[in-house]
Structure formats: C-alpha cells, structure tokens
Amino acid sequence: MNADRTPPHSILEIRDLTVRLPPGGDRTNAVENVSMHVNAGEIVCVVGESGSGKSVTAQTVIGLLPREQLTPTSGSVIFEGEDVLTLSRERMRGLRGKRISMIFQEPMTALNPVVRVGRQIAEVFRSHGLEPGRGGMPSISDLLESVRLPEPERLQNSYPHQLSGGQRQRIMIAMALALSPSLLLADEPTTALDVTTQARILKLIREMQDRYHNGVLFITHDFGVVAEIADRVVVMRDGQVVEQGPTDRILRNPQQDYTRMLISAVPSMVPAKRKRAPDAPVALRTENLAKTYGGGSWFRKGWEVKAAEAVNLELRRGQTLGIVGESGSGKSTVARCVVRLIDPTGGKVYLGDTEIGNVRLRELKPMRKRIQIIFQDPYRSLNPRRSIGKSLIEGPTNFGVPEREAWARAVQLLEIVGIDPDAHARFPHQFSGGQRQRICIARALAMEPDVLVADEAVSALDVSVQAQVLDLLTDIRDRFDLSVLFITHDLRVAAQVCDSVAVMHQGRVVEYEPVEQLFAAPTHPYTRELLAAAPGRHWNFQAFCEATETVAALDG
Amino acid sequence: MTTDVSFEAGARDERALSVWAATLRFLLRNRSVQIGGGLLVLMIAIALLAPLLWTVSPTRLDTAMRLRPPGPDAWMGTDPFGRDVYSRVIYGSRISLLVGLTVAMTAALVGTVLGILAGYIRWLDGILMRVMDGLMAIPAILLAIAMIAVLGAGIGSVIIAITVPEVPRVVRLVRSIVLSVREEPYVEAAVALGTPGHLVMVRHILPNTIAPLLVQGTYICAFAILIESILSFLGAGVPPTIPTWGNIMAEGRIYFQISPWNIFFPATFLALTILSVNVLGDGLRDTLDPRLQRSV
C-alpha cells in the first residue's frame, strides 16, 4: 500500500523496554532492557526458548499484557511516532486491528466457535466504524481470496470447526490484514500446524508482506522457520536480547555461544551416518496391522474410520525405526496398537517371536515388561500427585521386584538420564518439560524393555532441549541394545535418529526405506512433498552453511 | 543403599503429612470456608453437647405450659403440648445433622463405586447410566415419599429415601472424571507398566475425584437436611416421637398466627445450617477448582 518503497523507514522501535514480573517468580523482569526495531517491508524474527520473553515483548507492543500481573516499568515502544505505553485505552483500541494486528499460535481457539467466519471478519471492520466492501474497503470475499482460500462465498458462511487448521490460520491472517495494518505481530503462527501446512502459511505471510509492504514481527522457537522467512533475527534469552542482525549473518556467523547452541540444535535434513548390523534379530514386527474405529451404540448410527491399514513394519534389535506422518496419518494409532493400549482390529504384532496383537489381557501382562512407551506431552505423562520416585518403581513392583531393589534401580536410572537422584521425592510440577521427559524415559527403562516406543516424545520440547533428549535416546539405545520405534511428524528429527523410516499417509505406509535412501531418492509424491516442506531444508545448521547434499536437489 | 531406603520411607511419610496440613491451611485461607466451616462446626458442637446446654427433656409434656411465648422459663417458648421449644430445637439439630452427613457420605460412597464401574466397564455404562437417568427423571421428594411408604417411617428409611435420589448426581460426576482421566497419558503409562486395573483406579484415577466430591458432598448434605425437614413436616419422615426441625414446625403450623415462635426458631436453625453448608461448599469450590485446573 505504501507507494514509496525505497528508503526503509522504521515502523516499530522498542527502546530499553523492561517489563516486571509479579514478585515471587524465578526472575524479576519478564523482559529487560530490550531494544529492537522493525522497518516497513521487513520480517523480523524473535527467536528464543520458552520463557525467553519473546511473547511478552509482542504483547507489550499491542497492549495485551495481562493487567496487574505484567507492567512495563521503563523504556518506550514507538509505533509510527507514538509511544504506545503512554496511549489511552481508547487510542490503543483504535490502533489495534487497524494499524497493528496479531495472529496467534492456536487457530483453534483464536476464532469464536459459534460465529460464522464471515461475520467474525466483518467485525474487524465494524469495530473501527467501517464496513467491508464499502468506502474503499475490501470485501470479505476479496480478503478470503487474497489469502488463497477456495470458494470464498461458501467459506464465509462456515463455522470454524468446519475448517482445517491451515484454513483457520488463513482466516486469522485475513482478519489481521483486513485493514492493511502497518505492523503484523505473529506469535508462533505455524507451531501448531503440520509441516506441509506450515510451509504454505509461511509462504502466504511472505506474499502478503510483499503485497502490503508492512512490517512483520514474527515470533518462533525454530531456526528452521527463521531460515525460511526472516530478514533479520533477534535472539532472546531470559528476557534479554542476546544478539541481533541480518539472518544470513546470524546463521553463518553467530557471535554468541547461546545463538550458536540454538542454531546447531536444529536437526538438519542430512541423515546422520551410523553403522548398523543388517542381520540383527527382529525385535518387533507387524503383519498387516489394521485399526478401524467406529461401530454404533444404542442411540447412534454406525460409522467407521480406518485409522491404520495393512501396516507392515520390521524393527531390528539395536536400531531405530521412524514412522513419519502428519496429524491423522495413523502413526500414533500404530504406536498404540503395538503397545496394546488399544486393540488392533486386524493383523498381527510380533514382539520377538511372540504374537501380542491378539492375545488376551491376562496373557499380555508378562509381555508388557518387554515393550514400553514414552508420550508426547511431558506435562501429562506423569501423575501430578505422585513423587517421581514412586512413579519410577511402579512398573518393577508390578512384576514382583521388591520395593527396596526397585528404589535402588530407580536411583541408578535417574543418574543415567541426567536427573539428580536426590530429587526422587519431588513431584512432577517441580521439573521442567525436558526433565520430565527424561523421567518418563527412566520410568520406561526401569522395566528393562526390549523395545521402546517414542510417540512424538520430543515434539513438545524446545529445539535445544529436544536435541538433548534425542542424544539421551540414542545413548540409551546403544547402551542397552534397545530397539526404538520413533513416531514423529518432523522429518528433520527422523533424519537424525532413525535407521529406516516409514512414511504414513491416510492410514497407510506409502514409503518405507533406509533413511539415507529415503532422503536421497524419495519415490512417493507425498514423501517428496513432506521433504520439500521441511523448514530450513536448504541449511545445514550444524555446519553454519547452506546444505550442499542430497536434500537441496529435491526442489529441482 | 539400605540407609537410603529407610530414609526414603520416613521422608515420604513426613511429606504426605505436610501435604495434608498444607492443603488444610490453603483451604482455610478462603473467607467462605472460614465462615461456613465455623458455623457448621458450631452446629455440630451444639448437637453433640445438647444435654449440657441447659436443655430439658425435649419430649416432656407439661399441659400447664401450653403455647407460652419466649421468656425466662422457656427461651423459645413452648409448643401446643407444653414442650420446651428450645430443647426440641437443640435436640432436633442432631437428627438434621445426622441425616445430612450420613446421606452425603453414603451418596458419595455409593455414587463413586457406581461411577467408577460405569466409567471403567464399557458394557455396564449404558445400562447403569440409563437407570440413573430414570432415577433423575422422578422428583426427589416424590421418590423419597414413595420409598418411605414402602420402607416404613424411621431414621434409617429416611436416610435411604434421601440418599437414593442423590446417587445419580454423584455417579454422573465421578463417571465424567473417570472418562476424562483414563485418557491421560499417565494413566496409559501405568497400563503399559502392567499395573492391574484396580490399582490404576485407586492410584491414578480416584484421587482426581476427591476435590469435586468434597464440593458436591456439601451440596448434597444441605439438600438432605432440607428434604428431611420437608418430609418430617409432611409427616412422611422421622416419627413424631423424635423431635426434628421439620416436625416441630409441622406441629406449630396450625398455631402459627398466635404463637409464631414454634415455626420461627426451628426455621432459623434450619436456614442457618443450610446456609453454612452451602457457603462452605462455595468456598471449597472456589479454592479447589482453580487448583485442579492448574494441576491438569
């Protein structure tokens, strides 16, 4: 919209911003002496782990800090020449949505579920006394078309639940850009989306920014996303700016150790090289495994969903088999069938030589020892009311190990996974997400299993913590000669830890190859799409340079 | 390692104790819990200490003393049979509290067992819940009167008659908690660790029901006290030989115009007791619910 494109002028300038936390927290300020700026036509990425103050910074800019809990104590936030910290509430409301707008992480909760999306978009206009399609304003169909949503006429009469996550996020973007604001704040807008959807949304944000020539402050924890989208990068840690500069400079030549650590923690698409025995005994095998959900009840008609169909997998001792797919692909269903948390509706599961997919629960019990599972959400995988020591001894005591022996083993295991054994009397909420995931691994190891199933076990963690937990998983696999079934949506992670990878799509395995082969020469179109969508695929983060190998060839 | 283990056991006990003490202290910070709980404790003390509180026998008839207004001889006046209303009200609190607390506990216990069965055994769920739906379709008082007609009047049958209509509410509450908690990854992890079903229930699922049950229990208690009074007032409850707030009011009803104290005092006690239990329940809900949400 700005005709004048040549001289970059600053839209947002944050100077020495400090935001105080309520007393009693682990630090005094959420954000401390933070300075950064965003120019017109520029995407600035704020990168940091959870708790680094990146979201608080964005909330301060748009005036959405939780009142009475977080208060800016010093500094200024100059937006188009005005300090937003000193503006009245009415003036701020006038700016919000019109000059500054924001898109959020959860497209599910950011839209009102009981109002048609068309009306929700119209509300953006009406709250500023405008009407869509009149007085030079774009119509709702135009907006929906501009964010590349199909059938705008039909879509604007839909409710949010009738749309996919990606479509909802597009609606959010349409709302954010409706009044062509000069500044767009994006708080992890793609974190909750699948990789392929993420790639499309990132592309859309780039396109929109080209068209409207506005400034974008983009918050993320993923340097892969940074490599895709950012013009400049601001790295934050514990509420302070560690380093900032142009993307290329930061990625190639980070000055600070922390930045260096964050960047190198991003798993690259280049498969890790590792020797493996091709004739190791098979630890876990599935034969035409299938799971169909559905069936009617007294008052409901029957319905059927084929969550997994004809899944044939083979996992050898001491190796890692990855199952990669997007949400709804059936990968978790396979994991849960294999551990018998749900009963498969067809096919067989062999643990060693024993079939466990169809046996009765009583016969299954002795087999439980041999296969263990780690879940995605570290905050819900441990009983909040039991000390971690008690959680650790639960499994072994179920199988008759005397409590004293189980305690001794628990102490050893805590040491192995890198948790202070003296902490065994503490409760889960006293640990961080990464530590809890380590405790979950220890709990699984306490059973001395042959097979470990990791169901998105690192997906909820920050990249740096993710790298540590992945190292731990690899370490214990080699140390205990474990076989790992590794479920993930992230091809980059799979490249780092897996020996072979099965790609699942709509309940079926569409491609199943050794990891090098899959990345070098993917045959199935869906696999190619997944590979092409992985953020930062052009970059080798460990070497701080562009990726030269296999993956870059994909786009050709 | 031996010393370690014994140290551990000691530490665990201490820990458990301090958790309870901390929870109690936490609850007592709430103003509603203080007021409601305090008033309820006072009522219980009155009921327990009834013989010491300058009462006479609540059933002693004295025809010379009929329908006396409140005065130095009879603090709350006397009823149509010359019985001391003060003594009757104080002794009557025993029945109300006994019925209220017993019903709350029985309903919670029975409801929890049924709720767990419904939530955990899939085929039983449909049958059990339809029975509960059926029970909830009948007004509680009608159901209670019908049951007393079958069982015969008496404290025991009053307790049963009030408990039965209350059970479905508890069943629904417990079932919904069981259904949501059993999907929690930590419960699935316990299953994968080979923990037997009943231990999964006791260790991992049941503790989540305690706080909501405590809150629900207070409401049931208040409701039961009210229903008992209504039943006794209608003559369908505790036999008239035992004084309860309900039948004191029933007997005073026809003389209400000339001697309102027969109704005023028992009604005040009834209202205060129910108020205290409800205020306590509100306070418990306010303190326990946000904490539940935070811990999930």
Overview of the structural elements:
The complex is a heterodimer of chains A (556) and B (296). Chain A is built from 19 helices and 22 strands. In chain A, helix 7 links the parallel strand 7 (183-187) and strand 8 (215-220). The model of chain A is unreliable at 1-6 and 550-556 (pLDDT under 50). By secondary structure, chain B is mainly alpha-helical. Chain B has one domain: MetI-like (MetI-like fold, Orthogonal Bundle), CATH 1.10.3720.10. Helix content of chain B is 74%, strand content 0%. Chain B has 11 helices and no strands. Chain B has helices spanning 2-28, 31-48, 85-120, 122-137, 140-151, 155-181, 185-192, 197-205, 210-233, 245-252, 261-295. The model of chain B is unreliable at 1-12 and 291-296 (pLDDT under 50).
Secondary structure topology:
The complex is a heterodimer of chains A (556) and B (296).
Chain A: E1 10-20, E2 29-39, E3 43-47, H1 54-62, E4 71-79, E5 82-83, H2 89-95, E6 100-103, H3 117-126, H4 140-146, H5 152-155, H6 165-177, E7 183-187, H7 195-212, E8 215-220, H8 223-229, E9 232-237, E10 240-246, H9 247-252, H10 257-264, E11 282-294, E12 304-316, E13 320-324, H11 331-338, E14 346-351, E15 354-355, H12 361-368, E16 371-374, H13 388-398, H14 403-416, H15 433-445, E17 451-455, H16 463-480, E18 483-488, H17 491-497, E19 500-505, E20 508-514, H18 515-520, H19 525-533, E21 539-540, E22 545-546
Parallel strand pairs in A: 3-8, 3-9, 6-7, 7-8, 13-18, 13-19, 16-17, 17-18
Antiparallel strand pairs in A: 1-2, 1-4, 4-5, 9-10, 11-12, 11-14, 14-15, 19-20, 21-22
Chain B: H1 2-28, H2 31-48, H3 85-120, H4 122-137, H5 140-151, H6 155-181, H7 185-192, H8 197-205, H9 210-233, H10 245-252, H11 261-295
Helix pairs in contact in B: 2-3, 2-11, 3-4, 3-6, 3-9, 3-11, 4-6, 5-6, 6-9, 7-8, 9-10, 9-11, 10-11
Précis, in short:
Chain A is α/β, with parallel strands linked by helices and 556 residues long. Helices cover 33% and strands 25% of the residues of chain A. Chain B is an all-alpha fold.
